[in-house]
Amino acid sequence: MNYENAVDFYIVVAIAVCIIIALLIIRFGFIAPIAPRRRLGKAGAIRIGNGQTIGRRAEQDDYFASMTTPVGTLAVVADGISGLQNGRMSSTLAVTTFTREFAKVERADELEEYFARAAQKSNREILQNLNGQGGGTTLAAAVITGGKLHYGAVGDSLITLFRNGEFVPVNSKHTAETLLEEKVLTGEMSREEAVSSPVRRQLTNYLGYEGFERMEIGEDPVPLRADDLVLLASDGVHEALTEIELEQILLQQKTPQDMAEDIIDAIEAKGLRGQDNATVVILREDAC
After folding, report:
1. Directed axis angle between helix 87-102 and helix 111-130, to 10°?
2. Whole-angstrom Cα distance, residue 80 to residue 78?
3. Which residue intervals define the domain PPM-type phosphatase in the entry (predicted)?
4. Which of 275, 196, 284 is nearest to 238 (CA)?
5. pTM above the 0.85 mark?
6. Whole-angstrom Cα distance, residue 145 to residue 153?
7. Dihedral (CA of 111, 117, 118, 123) sign
8. How confident is residue 204, by pLDDT bands cut at 50, 70 and 90?
9. How many angstroms from the chain centroid is the CA of residue 248?
10. Cβ neighbours for 168, distance < 8 A, ≥ 6 positions apart
11. What are the C-alpha distances in Å from 113 to residues 14, 107, 214?
12. How high is the pLDDT of residue 253?
């Protein structure tokens, strides 16, 4: 074998050895695999818990859902208006519309438009199905993406942040209570008159309302901190339990599912005579 042939032979052998070593590394995992790309918009996994009770009502008019897409995690709670017909239909249709429209969202910067679009579609479809009959629903929707909370709400279902042992309100109630509070501040009404007003709980905005214009949408997403809990609840929860009672449950730092079940158990244990339907969804973003 001449010199040139010998060089070519050793080059081929060296290449073959490198290939064999590379195959062994891949086969037996001597080096860590490349980490997969994080799903768009997610800063961590979202843990979700939910609970519901019919209370003392004849039927369950609350409806809820959650879903996760590459954009983020959505949770929706709707409370069909029990004093009107078709409450169940209204809440179910609204939640279904919000989840369907969320599946079309491709980027986090589309979320404000998504909330507005889903609300208008829900309102229109509910009115079409009501066909002149009474009905409607409140709705609270929250999306967690990239460590931030985006939200939209209409009616008196609440989105609340539980942070460092305290509740931080996210959305406002769309009820006559808000208008009455304004009258108290301006001196037009006493505090006692406002509290005892028979229209205090009357909704001023909801889905399925002929005069509906828009839902409340957070203009700026809320940055979330470690261990923050995001609660979505129908008014049956807040009417039954005080903030102190809710705090005692949430401070136990159980899983979101266990906490949601504990909240419902506490409501049912009270056995309140006029207990409304009650639904709670709890979300917590875990670090990656």
Report:
1. 150
2. 6
3. 47-285
4. 275
5. no
6. 18
7. positive
8. confident
9. 22
10. 160, 161, 162
11. 60, 11, 11
12. 87
